[in-house]
Design goal:
13 helices; 348 residues; 2 domains; alpha+beta; DUF6461; 16% strand; nine-stranded antiparallel beta sheet
Amino acid sequence: MSEAACVTAVAGADEADVIRCFGGDPAEARACTFADLRGVETGSGLQYIFVSRSGSTVVVWEDNGFEGTREEVLRPLSGLGRAASAFWNVNAHSSLSLAEDGLVQSSLDMLFPDDRGGARPEAWDRYLHGLDFDPPAGSTWAVGMTAVARATGARLDTAWETGPQQIVPIRPVKEAVLHQCDEGSSLLAEPPFDHYMADLGPHHLPHMRQYAFQLALQHTGLDEDPLALSALAGGDGTESGREELRTRLAAAQSADREQAFALMRDEPDDLDEDEPIPAWTLPSHVFHIRSAMWWALEERLAAEDREPDDSLCRPGPESLLTYAMRGPGSSAERYWLLTSLMRAAARG
C-alpha cells in the first residue's frame, strides 16, 4: 500500500479515544476511503491519520508517518486495550511494537527480530509463532501487519483496504520527559538529577553539558589527566594557550587512535560468530574511547572559539561524546540518563 507507513491497531477501543491519543480532535474527522489519500494536501504542515473499525478493534493508518511507534502514543493507547503497530519506510527502517497496561511491552526492528526492547521483550513471542521475517523480497512488512492483526484481532484485508475510513488531522503528541526505561531509575533521586528534575528547563543546560564531560572523563579513565582537566577548564584563557592546547589534544587523539588500530591487528575477528565478543572486553577498546574523548575535548574548545554563525551546521561537542561512552559502567549509566534529561531540558 505504501513505501513508508505505519499501521496501529487497538483492541476494544473507541475511535474518538484513539484519535485523541494520536493528537487529533474527533470533531475534525471526516468520512473518506484510502483512495482519498491522493487528495491529502501534504504541504499544509499537518499530518493525517486514517481511522477505521475492524470488529471491536480500531485501526489507524499513517501514510509516511510513524506516530504509532512512539511511546507517547502507544502507552496511552494501551490504556484503552492491547495496542500494536508496524512501521516501515523506504530506507528499510522498521519497527514492530506491542503495548499493554500502560507500557510498551516489546519492540523490535523487523529486519533484526531477535534484538528486542521493552518491559517484557518476550511478549511478542505468542503472536509471532510460525511467522518468518525473512520471506520473499517485498513482503517483510506484510509479516509485521500479520503480527499486528494477531495481537489485536484486526482484519487487515481487502474489505478494510477498500472500506470506509475517517481522515483526521493530528498535531504530534508532546515528547515525554523520560522514556519508560528511565522512569524508574534510582538515579533520579540522587544529585544532580534530583536538582534537574525539580524544575527541568534550558537554564540547566550549561551545568548539564559540563557534567556530561565530567562523566565521560571518568568513563574513559582521564578524570585525573592534566591535559584533559586543562581542556575541560578551557585552558589558560589566552588565544595562544588555547591554540597550543588544541594541538596537544589532536596529538593525543592521534596517538591513542594509532595504538587502538595496532592492537586490533591481533584481536579476534568476531564478525561471523553467533555470539560476538563485546567490544569493551578487547584491549583496543580503552584506546578507542580515549581517542574519541580527546576529539570531543578538542571540539569543545573549537566551538567556544568559533563565531556563532560558524557553528550552525556543526554538531555540538556533546554529540561527539557518544563515541567515547561505549561500554558498560556507572558513569555510562549516568551519562545516558543525563542525555535524556538534556533533550527534555532543551525543549523547555
